[in-house]
Protein: Thyroglobulin type-1 domain-containing protein
Organism: Trichonephila clavata
Amino acid sequence: MFKSRCLTFDSLKVGTAPRNSYIYTILISTFRRNSTEMFTIAAIFTFVFLCILPQDISAETTCQIHKRNAGGGGNALMQWDIQCDAQGNYQPLQCTRNTPKWCACYDKERMITSPSKSTKTCQCYLAKSVALLSEKPACEVPVCLKSGKYQKRQCCEQTRKCRCVNEITGETVVPDTANMNLSCP
Protein backbone atom coordinates (compact mmCIF):
# COMPACT_ATOMS: atom_id res chain seq x y z
CA MET A 1 0.00 0.00 0.00
CA PHE A 2 1.44 3.35 -0.98
CA LYS A 3 0.75 6.39 1.13
CA SER A 4 2.11 9.90 1.23
CA ARG A 5 3.26 11.42 4.46
CA CYS A 6 2.78 15.16 4.06
CA LEU A 7 3.70 17.70 6.68
CA THR A 8 1.80 20.92 7.03
CA PHE A 9 3.76 24.05 6.33
CA ASP A 10 3.05 25.14 9.92
CA SER A 11 5.26 22.30 11.11
CA LEU A 12 8.15 23.24 8.82
CA LYS A 13 10.42 25.48 10.82
CA VAL A 14 14.09 25.94 10.25
CA GLY A 15 16.07 23.78 12.60
CA THR A 16 13.22 21.35 13.42
CA ALA A 17 14.62 18.48 11.37
CA PRO A 18 16.36 15.82 13.43
CA ARG A 19 20.11 16.41 13.36
CA ASN A 20 20.76 12.93 11.93
CA SER A 21 18.29 13.25 9.04
CA TYR A 22 19.57 12.98 5.50
CA ILE A 23 17.82 16.18 4.37
CA TYR A 24 19.23 18.14 7.29
CA THR A 25 22.76 16.98 6.44
CA ILE A 26 22.38 17.96 2.78
CA LEU A 27 20.91 21.32 3.66
CA ILE A 28 23.58 22.22 6.20
CA SER A 29 26.59 20.97 4.23
CA THR A 30 25.52 22.18 0.79
CA PHE A 31 23.58 25.36 1.41
CA ARG A 32 25.31 27.67 3.87
CA ARG A 33 22.96 30.54 3.15
CA ASN A 34 20.65 32.80 5.05
CA SER A 35 17.65 31.45 6.94
CA THR A 36 15.05 32.54 4.33
CA GLU A 37 16.79 30.57 1.59
CA MET A 38 17.26 27.65 4.00
CA PHE A 39 13.54 27.64 4.83
CA THR A 40 12.60 27.73 1.14
CA ILE A 41 14.97 24.90 0.28
CA ALA A 42 13.82 22.87 3.30
CA ALA A 43 10.17 23.36 2.33
CA ILE A 44 10.85 22.25 -1.25
CA PHE A 45 12.87 19.19 -0.15
CA THR A 46 10.20 18.24 2.37
CA PHE A 47 7.38 18.64 -0.14
CA VAL A 48 9.18 16.64 -2.85
CA PHE A 49 10.42 13.82 -0.62
CA LEU A 50 7.41 13.45 1.64
CA CYS A 51 4.45 14.44 -0.53
CA ILE A 52 5.16 14.08 -4.23
CA LEU A 53 7.23 10.90 -4.11
CA PRO A 54 4.93 8.17 -2.75
CA GLN A 55 6.52 5.98 -0.15
CA ASP A 56 5.75 2.48 0.90
CA ILE A 57 5.68 3.14 4.64
CA SER A 58 5.10 -0.45 5.61
CA ALA A 59 8.43 -2.05 6.42
CA GLU A 60 9.13 -5.70 5.73
CA THR A 61 7.39 -8.04 8.14
CA THR A 62 9.18 -10.67 10.19
CA CYS A 63 7.95 -13.35 7.77
CA GLN A 64 9.16 -11.46 4.69
CA ILE A 65 12.60 -10.94 6.25
CA HIS A 66 12.72 -14.62 7.28
CA LYS A 67 11.72 -15.71 3.74
CA ARG A 68 14.40 -13.49 2.17
CA ASN A 69 17.08 -14.75 4.58
CA ALA A 70 16.03 -18.41 4.24
CA GLY A 71 17.12 -18.08 0.64
CA GLY A 72 18.39 -21.36 -0.71
CA GLY A 73 21.86 -22.60 -0.58
CA GLY A 74 24.13 -23.44 2.22
CA ASN A 75 24.54 -26.79 3.89
CA ALA A 76 22.04 -26.13 6.66
CA LEU A 77 20.35 -29.25 7.97
CA MET A 78 16.98 -27.51 7.81
CA GLN A 79 16.36 -25.29 4.80
CA TRP A 80 12.99 -23.72 5.44
CA ASP A 81 10.51 -22.93 2.66
CA ILE A 82 9.01 -19.88 4.38
CA GLN A 83 5.53 -18.91 3.19
CA CYS A 84 3.92 -15.52 3.94
CA ASP A 85 0.30 -14.50 3.31
CA ALA A 86 -0.80 -11.42 1.33
CA GLN A 87 -0.37 -9.21 4.41
CA GLY A 88 3.15 -10.49 5.02
CA ASN A 89 2.22 -12.66 8.01
CA TYR A 90 3.40 -16.25 8.39
CA GLN A 91 1.25 -19.00 6.92
CA PRO A 92 0.45 -21.29 9.89
CA LEU A 93 2.34 -24.37 8.65
CA GLN A 94 5.99 -23.84 7.69
CA CYS A 95 8.06 -26.79 6.47
CA THR A 96 11.60 -27.53 5.35
CA ARG A 97 12.48 -28.08 1.71
CA ASN A 98 14.43 -31.25 2.40
CA THR A 99 13.07 -34.74 2.87
CA PRO A 100 11.99 -35.88 5.36
CA LYS A 101 10.02 -32.71 5.91
CA TRP A 102 10.16 -31.06 9.28
CA CYS A 103 7.33 -28.63 10.01
CA ALA A 104 6.54 -26.06 12.67
CA CYS A 105 3.48 -23.97 13.42
CA TYR A 106 3.55 -20.18 13.39
CA ASP A 107 1.09 -17.54 14.46
CA LYS A 108 1.15 -14.35 12.39
CA GLU A 109 4.51 -13.26 13.79
CA ARG A 110 6.47 -16.13 15.39
CA MET A 111 7.05 -19.86 15.72
CA ILE A 112 4.70 -21.42 18.30
CA THR A 113 5.85 -25.07 18.13
CA SER A 114 9.20 -26.76 17.79
CA PRO A 115 10.01 -28.30 14.40
CA SER A 116 8.72 -31.87 14.13
CA LYS A 117 8.35 -34.57 11.49
CA SER A 118 4.88 -35.32 12.96
CA THR A 119 3.26 -31.87 12.54
CA LYS A 120 0.87 -31.79 9.58
CA THR A 121 -1.63 -29.05 10.56
CA CYS A 122 -1.70 -26.12 12.97
CA GLN A 123 -5.38 -25.57 13.84
CA CYS A 124 -5.10 -26.83 17.41
CA TYR A 125 -1.70 -25.27 18.10
CA LEU A 126 -2.98 -21.87 16.94
CA ALA A 127 -6.05 -22.12 19.20
CA LYS A 128 -3.84 -23.23 22.09
CA SER A 129 -1.46 -20.30 21.53
CA VAL A 130 -4.35 -17.80 21.50
CA ALA A 131 -5.83 -19.34 24.67
CA LEU A 132 -2.49 -19.22 26.50
CA LEU A 133 -1.69 -15.66 25.41
CA SER A 134 -5.13 -14.45 26.51
CA GLU A 135 -4.63 -16.25 29.84
CA LYS A 136 -7.81 -18.32 29.52
CA PRO A 137 -8.58 -20.82 32.29
CA ALA A 138 -6.77 -24.16 31.91
CA CYS A 139 -10.03 -25.90 30.97
CA GLU A 140 -10.32 -23.69 27.88
CA VAL A 141 -6.83 -24.47 26.56
CA PRO A 142 -7.12 -27.25 23.96
CA VAL A 143 -5.01 -30.41 24.06
CA CYS A 144 -3.30 -31.09 20.73
CA LEU A 145 -1.91 -34.22 19.14
CA LYS A 146 1.65 -34.16 17.74
CA SER A 147 0.13 -33.92 14.26
CA GLY A 148 -1.45 -30.57 15.16
CA LYS A 149 -4.99 -31.95 15.26
CA TYR A 150 -7.19 -31.66 18.33
CA GLN A 151 -7.22 -34.58 20.73
CA LYS A 152 -10.77 -35.91 20.27
CA ARG A 153 -11.43 -36.09 24.01
CA GLN A 154 -10.88 -32.77 25.80
CA CYS A 155 -11.08 -33.08 29.60
CA CYS A 156 -10.88 -30.63 32.48
CA GLU A 157 -9.38 -31.91 35.72
CA GLN A 158 -10.90 -29.08 37.78
CA THR A 159 -14.50 -29.79 36.73
CA ARG A 160 -13.94 -33.56 36.18
CA LYS A 161 -15.80 -33.23 32.84
CA CYS A 162 -14.90 -34.27 29.31
CA ARG A 163 -16.28 -33.46 25.88
CA CYS A 164 -15.66 -34.75 22.38
CA VAL A 165 -14.46 -32.41 19.64
CA ASN A 166 -13.91 -32.58 15.91
CA GLU A 167 -10.20 -33.33 15.52
CA ILE A 168 -9.81 -30.83 12.67
CA THR A 169 -11.94 -27.84 13.78
CA GLY A 170 -12.06 -28.32 17.56
CA GLU A 171 -15.83 -27.84 17.54
CA THR A 172 -17.70 -29.75 20.23
CA VAL A 173 -19.51 -32.85 18.91
CA VAL A 174 -20.45 -34.36 22.32
CA PRO A 175 -21.06 -31.77 25.07
CA ASP A 176 -19.46 -31.71 28.54
CA THR A 177 -20.15 -34.90 30.44
CA ALA A 178 -19.21 -35.81 33.99
CA ASN A 179 -17.34 -38.83 32.66
CA MET A 180 -13.55 -38.67 32.64
CA ASN A 181 -13.51 -41.93 30.62
CA LEU A 182 -15.76 -40.59 27.85
CA SER A 183 -15.24 -42.49 24.59
CA CYS A 184 -15.21 -40.22 21.55
CA PRO A 185 -16.08 -41.37 18.02
